[in-house]
Amino acid sequence: AQSVTQLGSHVSVSEGALVLLRCNYSSSVPPYLFWYVQYPNQGLQLLLKYTSAATLVKGINGFEAEFKKSETSFHLTKPSAHMSDAAEYFCAVSKGGGSNYKLTFGKGTLLTVNP
Amino acid sequence: DAGVTQSPTHLIKTRGQQVTLRCSPKSGHDTVSWYQQALGQGPQFIFQYYEEEERQRGNFPDRFSGHQFPNYSSELNVNALLLGDSALYLCASSLRGLGETQYFGPGTRLLVL
């Protein structure tokens, strides 16, 4: 079975500060990992995904994440937060890199950005 | 190019009733997955349809059923609604294959009273 734990249900940063959202996974097979963002009253938008190529993955809107097998982690970072980054962020894991594999999500981390 | 669309956007039902939610996939996509997102939780996988057949199913009771049509659109049906079925229901479409990504619609918010 696969699972995801997102540490911190709520993270608050100042505009221009570093964003760090934590994700740890559990998987019996080599995982495929994803970060999605959900703005209020909207669906999920893919930020980035890890599919066993490079361990440092760059996504949209300046976000990136690093896969660390030894720590079973896939933390999301952004060097400088913008007000527009305020949203809920979900880490997800699947067994395969194809679309036929179900996604298992964490509970989410709400990011607030203070002016 | 329209993305994934879902209807209706909001729905209010009472316990015991039945509901049907609809999803139109992104153009060119052939696979539809449904997820339930309870308040304050991450989405949970309900099932996936490909070639008009249910291919995978999550840990949901038989009250949850679905269908996929020849044009790849899909319906999610929930019978005998419970208060606990209140949630945001998300549809994700994708092109079946290695390396492909699931794209999510805006969801249908269901409230069961």
Account of the 3D structure:
The complex is a heterodimer of chains A (115) and B (113). Chain A has 115 residues and is mostly beta strands. Chain A is 0% helix and 54% strand. Chain A is built from no helices and eleven strands. Chain A is globular. Chain B has 113 residues and is mainly beta. Helices cover 0% and strands 50% of the residues of chain B. Chain B has strands at 5-7, 10-13, 19-24, 31-37, 44-50, 53-57, 64-68, 74-78, 87-94, 103-104, 108-112. In chain B, strands 2, 4, 5, 6, 9, 10 and 11 form a seven-stranded mixed beta sheet that branches. In chain B, strands 1-3-8-7 form a four-stranded antiparallel beta sheet, with no helix packed on it. Chain B is globular. The mean pLDDT of chain B is 94. Classes of the chains: A mainly beta (115), B mainly beta (113). Chain A binds chain B through residues 4, 36, 41-46, 49, 51, 90, 92, 96-100, 102-108, and chain B through 4, 31, 33, 35, 40-45, 48, 50, 55-56, 58, 90, 92, 94-107.
Helix-strand pattern of chain A, N to C? EEEEEEEEEEE
- Number of distinct beta strands of chain B: 11
Q: Averaged pLDDT of chain A, please? A: 92
Helix content of chain B: under 10%
- Largest interface, per-chain counts? A-B, 24 and 31 residues
Instruction: Return Rg of chain B in Å.
Output: 13 Å
Average per-residue pLDDT of chain B, rounded, comes to 94
SSE order of chain B, one letter for each helix or strand: EEEEEEEEEEE
Low-confidence stretches of chain B: none
Helix content of chain A: under 10%
Protein structure class of chain B: mainly beta
β-sheet strand percentage of chain A: over 45%
